[in-house]
Structures are given as structure tokens and as C-alpha cells.
Amino acid sequence: MPTIKTLDLDLLRSFVSIVETGSFTRAGDRLGRTQSTISLQVKRLEDQIGRAVFLRTPRSLSLTPEGERLLGPARQMLRVNDAAIAELFEPTMTGQVRLGVPEDFATAHLPSVLAAFAEAHPLVELAVTCDLTLNLLDSFHDGAFDLVLIKREPSAPLEGVRVWREPLVWVARDPLAAEGLETVPLIVSPEPCVYRKRAIAALDAIGRKWRVAYTSTSLAGSQSAVNAGLGITVLPREMVPPYLTPIVDNPGLPSLYDTEIALIEAPGLSQTAHRLAQHIVAALERGA
Question: Of 172, 177, 176, 152, nearest to 162 (Cα)?
């Protein structure tokens, strides 16, 4: 009889994490492992199935045809495993958790984190609301949320546990869009907005003229305005889409200080909400 191969779930989890994060290093951050350990696990997986799953060059990472065929079954196996673990060890975890999140952070970082929690706890209802940080804080203190993720200054004496640090950059349509401008046209969110405040403070500090050229309540709206050439905005470095250009080493656009993302828990939190808070902290702190 032919030998039956058994796929190692740890190796599959590393494989799926690389696909979802786009790099070996970020996959290691997510799983709490070093980049070299992740590389070794991929090699073990490829040895196990006798096929390469990634095409790697110094500048790119993509799936081979065999890797593409493996991805769907790998995700399904991990979902079944995580659901079984949740059923065995946390079978009674139910209820609703109300979470407030800044829109850009929710778009870029949270989907995979919340998806993993939802797969492990299928009876829990996640009610996620996106808004500006100060609006989220107001609603949180009014009792609207169990948990809230907020943007804050790294030195700010605010409540909450830091789970992420965001390096900020100026963003334009192309490298020449920021050249020869007497007045910087800013694309910003409405007040209150941490990025808006940071951009204006940085320009004021060097005496650079600025004007608000476009105001948008959504991340997609701001990015579209930048792409149309209406002005320049500020974004976390990891959230700059490939069709826009981060502007660095431009003396007319001063360096921007980092911001932080902090998680705040409401008093009297349910066991379910506290479990989600632990999950978010564990998942995001590794990448902070």
C-alpha cells in the first residue's frame, strides 16, 4: 500500500500566514516566530509534499501553481482545527462584543485578526463600528462599546494598552507632486483627526504655508483625491496603496512622528469581550 501523507498543521499555518501578510517576516511577527523559523517551516512543508509552494526573488514573493492549489485546503484544515479547539475548550463562549475602530486601521490590519477569532468562536457576534478616534472615545465613554481601538500620541497619558505603533509618511500621487509648491494642499479627514493634527503641526513648526484642499470622511475618498492630484495627505507607511507615492527626504515636508493604536476595555467587561481583547492584544502586539 502507498504511504499516506499527513500534513502538519503548524507548517500550514505558517504557509497561510505568509500568504495573508505578504512576507516571511510579517508572518513570523503574527505567529511569534523568527523569520528563519518561518523559512525552515516552509522548507519542511515543501519537502513534505515534494513541491515548491512559493516563487521567491529579492523583490517579490508569489505562489507557485502548487501553492495556489494548496491554499484553499490549508485554510479549510486550519478552520476545522480551530473550531474543534474552541468547541473543546471554550464551548460556551457566546454573546455580542461591540468594538469601535478607526476606519483605516480596520481596513488594513484587523480583518485577519477578527476572522481568526470568529472562526474559533463561531457563536460570538462581532459588532464593529468605524469612526474617528475622538468620536470613538466619546461613544465609548457613553457606553456604546465594550472595546475600542484608538489612535493616540506615544507620550500621551491616556488609558488603554498599546497594541500597535504607526510610522506616518506624506503621500502624493507621484514623486513630483510635492515639488515647487508655495502652499501645501492638504487632503484630510474632518476634525477631530490625529493625522490632520499631525500634518498641520509639522508644517506650522517649519513655517510652511498650507491649506485644506479636500476633506473626506473615508479612507477611500482621501486616497482617490490624492490619486486625482488634488493634494497631499498623511498615512501610516503600511497603508500607502501601490498606486500612490510616499514622499521622503523632502525638505519642504518635515518628518512626522509616529502615532500609536491603543486598546481600551470598558468596566465590567464580559468574559467573551475580555477574550476578544486578549486575542487582539496578542495578535497585534507582535507587529507593533
Answer: 152
